[in-house]
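[Structure tokenization] protein backbone as discrete codes

[Encoding] learned vocabulary of local backbone shapes

[Begin record] amino acids and matching fold tokens:

___
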Amino acid sequence: MGGLAREPIPSYAGELYGVYLLPPYQGQGIGRHLVRSVANHLEAHEVNSMFVVVFSANVVGNKFHDALGGQKLYKRTITLAGSDV
């Protein structure tokens, strides 16, 4: 899922909201295809940049986005359900 950025991040107008695949389907190129589909959709609507928020504890997600050429912009802490993440 993706669309217009839900929070202001300088130089980024689009956001990849999430890519979730069950473990048996990971490593087959499906995630890469889904990210490309979101990027193509955004580009068709003249949105030429996007970011994604990935929790630092999400080792698989971080490796996936790194493999796609993602760059870490910054780290921050947020509170979800009473826990800092």
About this structure: The helical segments are 30-44, 59-67.
